């Protein structure tokens, strides 16, 4: 105990001596500085080596440093590239989206007015064949309803301010957009599941094959009375399938990057994600408008496939002849002779 | 009317963070949000500089341009403000802002954003000046009381200047002239498309 105390006292002495030395040195240094300043002030330029804003921006297109607050992401001081993103969001995207969607609608209207609905040439046979089972239809409509809500709420973010806001006013538009945002965020999950299920359950029928080339060469038989052969899915449907799978995958991935800010992305990542998300989304909407058209008023007998799940045998013969042959081979020759058109149940 | 701006004289900033603290206290800024922060560039190296940064109240503000619900407005003093009643918390202003000013309180599930919060230049919001509602949503409205933003008022080295753009630019120019150096008005080119010749 005694020796420790002695050591402690020794340390105290040493410390106070050290303090004295430091004080003396400090005073001496200060004296030097004070006398030296007038002489050296002209030569010292503290900014000679200092960081320069423009130089930093040119090097990295952003300026980043250290912050002492917990939010480390606020260490990015400046990133002017938001300007390019703004240009994309306010100008480029509106052009892309406007042309894609209005162009598609215009093309469909012109097509409908000139060519009209693709009719069942042989009329209805009155006998049906199962095309999509209950689970397939459930997945389709799950994805479809989510898609429609997502599309409307998404288009609202891009086009609502110039188109809808002036009509309904700030408060109503904000309220509507707020609900749109919630719907957009939450329905993304069932939509993603739907896309995933679509990918898995229909992949077998959607691998491109030689038949598709022939089908595409004959323009899918859209014009005239041509009916190129096709298996369960023709080349046009395969295109829709891959648009849904790839487009859906892209919007889901980019959308989640935006929904979970800073999980693996920085600000540039989120700007890129928004660009990918919005371009894919408007093209997706345009493609789905065509899909909705051909599945409803565009083709006689097509809607039933996703409605009741059963299509007329004559519809199957005209649009999916090879598929019908496969089905017949599986179930036996009981559908050998379709009824003539006159026998269709009116 | 004045054209209000911020100017941080980086050669004077000592990174004391008084501006950050003053701001948080004055406006009772929610936990996790910093309307102002001090960023140190080249920390510990020769030529290190600290810059206090918040919303710069840009000319032709990008946040206002990209907002899907048009919730931003510019006051007669050219201060960029927004309405939290209209804001839907989409995050677009944050993508567009060059200074990382907009922040969102984390509400609900995943990273979902609440109403955006940012520096108001101590000028409140669309509610009646000095009202309780205004204070709760946006913090104090010092401008309406004839006072300047507290961050600049409290700056220990008078590095951070707030006030009419021409006047603070003049002060800065005089400083640069007198001391013989200046690393420029950080952010001015991006925010106001102008630089202060020094």
From TrEMBL, chain B:
Q: Does the keyword Coiled coil apply?
A: no
Domain 4Fe-4S ferredoxin-type, residue spans:
4-34, 78-107
Pfam families hit by this protein: Fer4_6
Q: Which GO terms describe its molecular function?
A: 4 iron, 4 sulfur cluster binding; metal ion binding
Family matches, as InterPro entries: 4Fe4S_Fe-S-bd, 4Fe4S_Fe_S_CS, ET_IronSulfur_Cluster-Binding
- What keywords were assigned to this record? 4Fe-4S, Iron, Iron-sulfur, Metal-binding
Highest taxon of the source? Bacteria
CDD domains assigned to the protein according to its UniProt record, in alphabetical order: DMSOR_beta_like
Name the UniProt record assigns to this protein: Formate dehydrogenase
Q: Which organism is it from?
A: Bradyrhizobium forestalis
Taxonomy of origin reads: Bacteria, Pseudomonadati, Pseudomonadota, Alphaproteobacteria, Hyphomicrobiales
């Amino acid at each position: 105990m005694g020796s420790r105390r002695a050591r402690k006292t020794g340390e105290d002495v040493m410390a106070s001596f050290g303090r004295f030395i430091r004080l003396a040195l400090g005073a001496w240094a200060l004296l030097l500085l004070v006398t030296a300043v007038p002489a050296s002030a002209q030569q010292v330029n503290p900014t000679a080596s200092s960081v320069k804003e423009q130089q930093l921006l040119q090097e990295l297109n952003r300026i980043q440093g250290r912050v002492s607050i917990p939010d480390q992401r606020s260490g990015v001081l400046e990133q002017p590239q938001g300007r390019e993103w703004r240009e994309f969001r306010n100008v480029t995207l509106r052009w892309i989206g406007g042309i894609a969607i209005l162009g598609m609608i215009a093309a469909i209207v012109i097509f409908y007015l000139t060519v009209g609905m693709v009719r069942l040439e042989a009329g209805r046979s009155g006998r049906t064949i199962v095309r999509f089972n209950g689970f397939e239809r459930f997945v389709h409509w799950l994805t479809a309803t989510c898609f429609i809500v997502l599309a409307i709420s998404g288009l609202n973010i891009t086009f609502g301010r110039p188109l809808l806001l002036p009509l309904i006013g700030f408060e109503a538009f904000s309220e509507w957009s707020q609900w749109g945002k919630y719907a957009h965020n939450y329905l993304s999950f069932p939509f993603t599941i739907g896309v995933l299920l679509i990918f898995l359950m229909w992949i077998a029928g959607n691998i491109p094959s030689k038949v598709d080339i022939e089908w595409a060469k004959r323009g899918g038989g859209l014009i005239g009375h041509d009916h190129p052969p096709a298996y369960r899915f023709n080349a046009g449907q395969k295109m829709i399938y891959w648009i849904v799978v790839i487009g859906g995958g892209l919007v889901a991935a980019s959308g989640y990057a935006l929904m979970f800010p800073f999980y693996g992305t920085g600000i540039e990542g989120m700007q890129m994600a928004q660009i990918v998300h919005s371009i894919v989304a408007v093209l997706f909407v345009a493609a789905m408008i065509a899909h909705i058209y051909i599945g409803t008023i565009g083709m006689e007998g097509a809607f039933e496939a996703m409605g009741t799940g059963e299509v007329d045998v004559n519809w199957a013969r005209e649009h999916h002849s090879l598929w019908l042959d496969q089905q017949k081979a599986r179930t036996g020759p009981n559908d050998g002779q379709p009824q003539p058109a006159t026998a269709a149940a009116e | 009317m004045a054209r209000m701006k911020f100017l941080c004289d980086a050669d004077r900033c000592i990174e004391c963070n008084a501006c950050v603290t003053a701001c948080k206290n004055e406006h009772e800024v929610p936990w996790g949000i910093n309307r102002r922060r001090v960023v140190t560039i080249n920390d510990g190296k020769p030529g290190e500089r600290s810059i206090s940064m918040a919303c710069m109240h840009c000319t032709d503000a990008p946040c206002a341009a990209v907002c899907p619900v048009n919730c931003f407005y510019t006051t007669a003093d050219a201060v960029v403000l927004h309405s939290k009643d209209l804001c839907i918390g989409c995050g677009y202003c944050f993508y567009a802002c060059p200074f990382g000013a907009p922040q969102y309180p984390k509400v609900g599930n995943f990273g979902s954003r609440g109403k955006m919060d940012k520096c108001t230049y101590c000028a409140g919001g669309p509610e009646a000046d000095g009202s309780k509602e205004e204070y709760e949503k946006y913090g104090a409205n010092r401008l309406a009381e004839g006072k300047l933003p507290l961050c600049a008022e409290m700056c220990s080295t008078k590095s951070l200047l707030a006030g009419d753009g021409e006047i603070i630019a003049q002060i800065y120019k005089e400083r640069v002239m007198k001391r013989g150096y200046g690393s420029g008005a950080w952010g001015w080119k991006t925010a106001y498309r102008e630089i202060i010749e020094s």
